Amino acid sequence: MTASVAILGLIPMLLSTGVGAETQRPLASVVVGGLLTSTALTLILLPVIYEWMEMRGRKSEPAPSRGDLDLADAHAKAAE
Prior knowledge:
Elements: H1 2-14, H2 21-60, H3 66-79
């Protein structure tokens, strides 16, 4: 939300044609591009990497042995 407001605020600077526009336009385009890139990375790439690491962690965990399952059942029954 904050990035979108910043991008909207920079649109006039990005589209300016008046005096000083030759220095404002490149700055605005870099800032808008950086905001779009960081937002996309945060909303798309970061959750994908997190999910990939979670799946990778689950695959490396050993399966519980039968004794562990019996112990878990005993604790569940005792809690009832």
